[in-house]
Amino acid sequence: VHPNVSQGCQGGCATCSDYNGCLSCKPRLFFVLERIGMKQIGVCLSSCPSGYYGTRYPDINKCAKCKADCDTCFTRNFCTKCKSGFYLYSGKCLEKCPDGLEANNHTMECTSIVHCEASEWSPWSPCTKKGKTCGFKRGNEVRVREIVQHPSARGNPCPATSESRKCIVQRKRCQKEGKGKKNREEKRKKSNKDESKETRQESKGRAARRQNREQRENNNKTQPKKRKAPNKEQDLAPVDTAH
User: Fold this and answer.
1) How far is CA 222 from each of CA 88, 102, 192, 217, 226, rounded to the nearest angstrom?
2) Are 43 and 20 in contact (CB under 8 A)?
3) d(Cα 80, Cα 73) in Å, to the nearest integer?
4) Between 202 and 100, whose confidence is greater?
5) C-alpha angle with apex 232: 227 to 234, nearest 5 degrees?
6) CA torsion 16→17→20→25, rounded to 10°?
7) CB-CB contact of 156 with 119 (8 Å)
8) 125: Cβ contacts below 8 Å, ≥ 6 apart
9) 200: part of which helix (H) or strand (E)?
10) CA 20 to 30 Å from 73, out of 36, 89, 120, 209?
11) In Å, how far from its chain's centre is CA 237?
12) Distance CA 223, CA 215 (A)
């Protein structure tokens, strides 16, 4: 250490030198040596950089290096993230995962093997043939199930999600589509015809009532007015013959 030690340091240093940088840190800061070429410079940080872990002592807090295969660590013997090419398992970095585990290339961890899981079978469907449920005696019925857990890379693959089997039913005749369509068309025409008939009857009734009203109005206009009957009392009044 260079003998020129200063108390007026910057960057969190409690004591420092021009040659070695920080020699000690302010409270709660971590002291770490950074290599610059052939020389190491002391710096004080609030948290340790990647590849280091922090240890606290009564006199100084230090950053120590993790193992060579460890990118970040909690202590020297407990890694939290491994360098490329290694898989993390229980705080250790391994090139190959133990038996019963598989390497997860996404998280770079050793994880448990996950096998496929399927739900229970659904009830068998109605017996059909070519999409129809009539017009045959022998057909097929199916049932299905869903995948509730997909497997990991080394897990057991998923089973089939559908099954089919032959079935026998009592033959029943299918209703012809054309005949059914014709019946529906006839019913529609009949309904329209009935509606049209009722509409025509209502129109005729309104026309007849309008014609009768107009006839009465014309008769009232053409019929002569009745004369007022003479007043018999005036006709029988005595005539003044004094003159």
Assistant:
1) 118, 114, 45, 9, 12
2) no
3) 5
4) 100
5) 105
6) 0
7) no
8) 141, 142, 143
9) helix 177-222
10) 36
11) 111
12) 12
- Taking Cα atoms as reference points, which of 55, 35, 51, 31 lies closest to residue 43? 31
Give per-residue pLDDT as tens, 123-132. 999 999 998 8
Instruction: For 36-69, give the DSSP string.
Output: ETTEEEEEEESS--TTEEEEE-SS-EEEEE--TT
Paired strand residues for 52: 65
**Rounded Cα distance, 81 and 53, in Å:** 12
Query: And the tokens for 79?
Result: 């890694």
What's the mean pLDDT in 21-31? 90
Give the count of beta carbons closer than 10 Å to the beta carbon of residue 98: 10
Q: Give tens-digit pLDDT for 124-160.
A: 999 999 988 898 889 999 999 999 999 998 899 999 9
Other C-beta atoms lying within 10 Å of the C-beta of residue 31: 21
8 Å CB contact between 126 and 165: no
CA distance 227 to 100: 128
C-alpha span between 110 and 89 (Å, rounded): 6
Instruction: Report residue 128: phi and psi, to 5°.
Output: -135, 165
Domains with residue ranges and CATH for the chain:
7-65 (2.10.220.10), 73-112 (2.10.220.10), 117-168 (2.20.100)
Taking a C-beta distance cutoff of 8 angstroms, is the pair 30, 44 a contact?
yes
C-alpha–C-alpha distance, residues 5 and 45, integer Å:
20
